[in-house]
Design a protein that fits this description.
Layout: E1 14-18, H1 22-33, E2 37-41, H2 47-54, E3 59-61, E4 75-78, H3 83-95, E5 100-102, E6 115-119, E7 122-126, H4 133-146, H5 151-168, H6 172-184, H7 186-192, H8 196-209, E8 219-224, H9 235-243, E9 246-249, H10 255-258, E10 266-269, H11 281-293, E11 297-302, H12 312-322, E12 326-329, H13 334-342, E13 354-359, H14 371-374, E14 379-384, H15 390-399, E15 407-412, E16 420-425, H16 429-435, E17 442-446, H17 453-456
Parallel strand pairs: 1-2, 1-4, 2-3, 4-5, 8-11, 8-12, 9-10, 9-11, 13-14
Antiparallel strand pairs: 6-7, 14-17, 15-16, 15-17
Helix pairs in contact: 5-6, 5-8, 7-8, 11-12
The structure holds S-adenosyl-L-homocysteine (SAH).
């Protein structure tokens, strides 16, 4: 972060603006909106500022800039078209420890002005650190269209009812949930359509009708976090992650995805490294039950899809037995994500009419798979958790009649900026794993479709993206 966003209270505080033209007037509009007392220093005044001066909105001193003018001010803006003057303003302000902004000269600023979405008292500030004001404006335009104009009214409603709701709901998580419901439901819609009184009445009725001290039953959301790229989350996954009280996550969940969980949510790491489960599966199942019984909204966040080699079934089985409400949110499974980002279609009219997802995890050193079923013509086979047993896998496939020249791809950390794709044939694949130091998580795709990778590859991750 190049700049720390803060919100300044300038109400009735003295601010100086050096420069009297149109640019100055645009900045002054913002200062006045924040209630500042603005004095303009400039030998001459433009039309707008002249008018504001006559209307008593601003004070005016018709003089060239002198450093003493800044004494006692709390904020300075330099908006002259004279670079030398701007520089002197900046130096004088800095010497006095006063925050200074010089229009269009970021190197002279100690603070920059963001793009502002004003839904007072809700205020959103967007900054690109001075790098691209155009980008900041585009972001602002998007947010403007996303955030209903009545949002400010919503904040006022909250203020009016805050104490009442606090008395009714003594338990903070219950209180938060109540507000979330109110702010997203019918009452919010009333505010947006300008029916403030009806909204207040409806809110009062809601408060009167609830028993605020009853611990509600929590809920568990079994959420697929996808293969790594956070852009691949579903809307529902994101929304539930934003509402969670606690998130229980696996090692496979990428840091970029975890980053999107509500900041205040408790995070519990449940592990699941090969042969090194941080929490045994049974304990995870019971942990989820316990958290839900405490009234929490629990997100059980898994890599990929929860129902594909994710033990999702076992976890919700315990929930079902205990009568805990739950939802399952599908995610993009590693096979779909890795195949797409490696440019390897899993089926293709010319090469594969079926695709099989199979676990390559070795139980007691052997892979108990139906090898015959895997060795079929025109079929793609995708191995999850196959890295450790790669030698056995290739040997058995060849042993059961698959040509040793069959192509295979290793996709390591697919869809992330660390994605690596290596291709070989069945005979040489195990050697490649060793030589290229391939690490988990890696997916193995076997079949003729792998030849398409050379032509259809499109995702070239660099450390920067
Ligand atoms: N439920 C998950 C799979 C869990 S099994 C899903 O639907 O994707 C764990 C295996 O998934 C890993 O051993 C690896 O083979 C594969 N995997 C998961 N994420 C991956 C990724 N980003 N890149 C490559 N393989 C991945």
């Amino acid at each position: 972060m190049d700049f720390l966003p803060i919100f300044l209270n300038l109400r009735q505080r003295p601010c100086a603006v050096i420069g009297g033209g149109e640019v100055a007037s645009r900045k002054i509009t913002l200062l006045l909106a924040a209630g500042a007392r603005v004095t303009v220093y400039s030998p001459a005044l433009g039309e707008t500022l002249q008018r504001w001066r006559e209307e008593g909105k601003i004070a005016y001193v018709a003089q060239e800039f002198r450093p003493e003018m800044l004494e006692g001010c709390e904020l300075v803006i330099a908006a002259t078209d004279d670079v030398a003057v701007n520089r002197r303003v900046s130096e004088a302000a800095r010497a006095r420890g006063i925050p200074v902004n010089v229009v269009d000269q970021p190197e002279l600023c100690t603070f920059i002005m963001p793009s502002i979405i004003d839904r007072s008292p809700v205020t959103i500030a967007v900054s690109t650190g001075g790098r691209s004001p155009v980008l900041a404006r585009l972001i602002r335009a998007r947010l403007e269209s996303l955030i209903p104009a009545g949002y400010g009214g919503l904040a006022k409603l909250v203020t009016a009812f805050r104490d009442k709701v606090k008395q009714t709901f003594k338990h903070p998580p219950l209180r938060r949930r109540f507000w979330e419901e109110v702010l997203q439901g019918r009452i919010a819609e009333l505010v947006y359509s300008g029916q403030d009184q009806a909204a207040a009445k409806a809110l009062q009725e809601r408060i009167d009708s609830v028993d605020g001290n009853k611990t509600p039953v929590g809920e568990v959301y079994l959420v697929g976090g996808g293969p790594g790229d956070p852009d691949l989350l579903t809307f529902r996954a994101l929304r539930l992650m934003q509402e969670a009280d606690v998130v229980v996550y696996d090692r496979l969940v990428s840091p970029a995805v975890l980053e999107l969980v509500r900041r205040d949510a408790e995070r519990i790491y449940a592990g699941k490294e090969r042969d090194n489960h941080a929490i045994p599966q049974e304990d995870i199942n019971h942990l989820l039950v316990r958290l839900a019984k405490e009234g929490k909204r629990v997100v059980r966040l898994k890599g990929g899809d929860p129902f594909i080699f994710g033990r999702g079934g076992e976890e919700i089985d315990t929930l079902a037995a205990e009568g805990i409400p739950f939802q399952v949110v599908p995610g993009i499974t590693a096979a779909a994500g890795c195949a797409a980002y490696a440019g390897i279609p899993l089926t293709h009219r010319d090469y594969a009419q079926s695709v099989v997802f199979v676990t390559g995890h070795l139980q007691d050193g052997t892979v108990n798979l139906n090898w015959k079923a895997l060795v079929q013509p025109d079929q793609t086979v995708v191995f999850y958790m196959g890295l450790h047993g790669i030698e056995t896998i290739c040997r058995e496939l060849i042993g059961h009649g698959m040509p040793p020249t069959t192509l295979a791809a290793l996709v390591q950390q697919g869809t992330t900026r660390n994605q690596r794709v290596l291709t070989a044939d069945l005979a040489t694949l195990p050697g490649i794993v060793e030589k290229a130091q391939v690490k988990a998580p890696t997916l193995i795709i076997v079949g003729d479709v792998v030849q398409l990778h050379e032509r259809l590859r499109w995702f070239e991750p660099t450390a920067a993206n």
